[in-house]
Specification:
- By secondary structure, the chain is of the alpha+beta class.
- The protein has 16 helices and twelve strands.
- The strands form three sheets. The chain has a four-stranded antiparallel sheet, with helices on one face.
- Strand 2 and strand 3 form a beta hairpin.
- It is globular.
- The chain starts with a helix and ends in a 42-residue tail after the last helix.
Length: 576
């Protein structure tokens, strides 16, 4: 019964959203709004229906049996909504639809958003439906992949989905501006608010994911350039460039095509990343499964989004510039104008570098992700230039302070030290002044092996850590649970890779300075973007806000910042 309700609700949502788009283009504002809201509500109801089936353990449904089991607590069962292909596609589509709930959308904006959501729903319900019923109910489910059984699973994917789907709104605004060939003050303000919301939520989602990988998964780093990670980084870079391009137009009268071009590219990149990780085209430890038909459908959607964006920007290119309707600041420093003009190009170059590295596995015989050295060697100079340009003006701006703190953490992480050794009980390993002593590995039960170690500094025991290996025989998985001592200055992380019956342990030790700067810098940057979006009076970086003329004669100041970069080897080549 649940599966039938969910299927009918999904198709009803598609019908309502298609109607909403047609009514919006026909100029029927009130009926279009009503149909859009109905379609959004029905799509969210379908998500709630799937969530109910997961939380209550409806094992008549194939999707429920595939992503959860009876032993899993209900919050993690509910997380199964975004833990598999069908549920994640449904949630993605519903969130795209929900962004069209607002009354203020223009007709072309509403039509573009509604039809995009309907297209995603059609792909999901026809090629990756979560509504299949089993011929006979399962006695129990397979359960979530062990690596997903972590508290971050409850908040990291939803944050990321909110950020990625919110890109539909600036894309729709770009489409509307192209149709009307207008880039007025209302459009500029709307674009700024939409881009800031996307930037803030994406930043927080990426920081949450990086922290999860760092403290829990045993990969040895916060970023590994996995295709799924790049799926969020690519749009993030595009949005950052769009915000700086928009600021250049609003403050200096510079040509304003960078903002709509990068805003359109952001959504296309998000859809492209969705295709790569759901089709199996690119190797990823985050993959939701491999389905070539879903991949082909998403390639088509990527092409449509990109083509519409190109047409919209081409129509806007007939204008001499996208005028915000605000006076140009005659006192703006030349250095500030240069920085604002260059930042979109830096963001565009970074997008190209990451995109080429992400799609590289599609063109070759080897099924190996590009190593992190490729990204770090090309993006590190870009990051340094971006930070240097940001600090040429408004050094107290909150957002740029966040990027500076983040950049310090990322740069410091390149000075990390690592070592791996097999230690008998009583033997030790020294890394960057820290001594790790194996006190004897032992099996706790038939699933868990723990290797307690003493962490010493100058002969004194500073902490006792317990890295472990946890077996999940039902999935054939052996998962490393790392142990971490973290302080504002230094993190020491120990991972157990193997153990013998005699207490010997193969230990991997990482010592990293200033990792806290990554978390606090990222949170500061995301919070600054969201605060600026919610309060137009908050002065943020010119790249992150629409600034009006400063009141003479006192100088203004608050946030500053550049871009997000990280390093680490690819997942397929070992711990990152």
């Amino acid at each position: 019964m649940t599966a039938t309700v969910g299927l009918l609700t999904t198709w009803a949502a598609i019908a309502a959203l298609v109607a909403a788009g047609g009514l919006a283009l026909a100029g029927r504002g009130a009926p279009a709004l009503a149909a859009n809201r109905l379609g959004s509500a029905l799509a969210l109801l379908a998500v709630a229906t799937l969530g109910w089936a997961l939380a209550t353990g409806d094992f008549t449904m194939a999707y429920v049996a595939a992503v959860t089991d009876r032993a899993t607590s209900w919050p993690y069962r509910l997380a199964g909504v975004w833990g598999g292909m069908g549920g994640s596609m449904l949630l993605w589509s519903a969130l795209v639809a929900a962004w069209g709930w607002r009354r203020s959308l223009a007709g072309p904006e509403r039509a573009a958003g509604a039809w995009l959501a309907a297209a995603f729903l059609v792909v999901g319900v026809t090629l990756a439906t979560p509504w299949h019923r089993l011929a006979a109910p399962a006695l129990d489910g397979l359960g979530a992949t062990p690596i997903l059984r972590h508290p971050a699973m409850l908040y990291h994917p939803p944050l990321l989905y909110l950020g990625l789907t919110s890109l539909a709104m600036p894309w729709a605004s770009t489409v509307a501006a192209g149709i009307d060939r207008r880039g007025d003050a209302a459009w500029a303000g709307r674009m700024r608010r939409q881009l800031l919301a996307s930037f803030g939520v994406l930043t927080l989602g990426m920081v949450a994911g990086a922290h999860w990988a760092y403290v829990e998964l045993g990969w040895g780093g916060f970023w590994a350039w996995d295709p799924v990670e790049n799926t969020s980084l690519l749009p993030w870079l595009a949005v950052a460039g769009a915000l700086h391009g928009l600021a250049a137009t609003r403050r200096h009268g510079a040509p304003g095509l960078a903002a709509p071009a990068l805003a359109g590219a952001a959504l296309a990149l998000a859809v492209l990343g969705t295709m790569l990780t759901r089709s199996g085209a690119a190797p990823s430890v985050h993959a939701f499964g491999e389905d070539a038909e879903v991949g082909r459908a998403l390639v088509g959607l990527t092409g449509v989004v990109l083509a519409v964006s190109v047409v919209a920007v081409a129509r806007l290119s007939g204008r001499r510039r996208l005028d915000s309707g605000e006076p140009v600041d005659p006192r703006a420093a030349r250095g500030e104008g240069l920085a604002l003009a260059v930042q979109p190009w830096l963001a565009g170059f970074a997008v190209l570098v990451v995109l080429l590295g992400t799609v590289r596995p599609l063109f070759g015989d080897d099924d190996v992700a590009v190593d992190g050295s490729y990204y770090s060697s090309l993006l590190a100079p870009v990051g340094l230039v971006a930070v240097a340009l940001a600090l040429r003006f408004r050094p107290k701006v909150l957002a740029h302070v966040g990027v500076l703190v983040l950049a310090v953490g990322v740069a410091a992480s390149t000075q990390a030290a690592s070592a791996t050794a097999t230690l008998a009980p009583g033997e030790s390993l020294r890394v960057r002044g820290w001594e790790v002593v194996n006190t004897g590995a032992a099996a706790v039960d038939d699933r868990v092996v723990v290797a307690p170690v003493e962490l010493r500094r100058d002969g004194d025991v500073v902490a006792r850590l317990e890295p472990s290996l946890v077996a999940f025989p039902e999935r054939g998985v052996l998962l490393a649970e790392t142990s971490l001592r973290s302080t504002p200055l230094t993190d020491v992380q120990v991972a157990l890779r193997n153990a013998d019956d005699d207490g010997r342990a193969l230990l991997e030790v990482h010592v990293r300075p200033l990792v806290w700067c990554i978390w606090w810098g990222g949170l500061l940057l995301g919070a600054a973007a969201l605060a600026a979006q919610l309060d137009g009076r908050l002065r943020t970086s010119p790249g992150l806000a629409a600034s009006s003329l400063p009141p003479p004669p006192a100088p203004s100041g608050t946030p500053t910042c550049g871009g997000f970069a990280a390093r680490g080897p690819g997942f397929t080549s070992g711990p990152s």
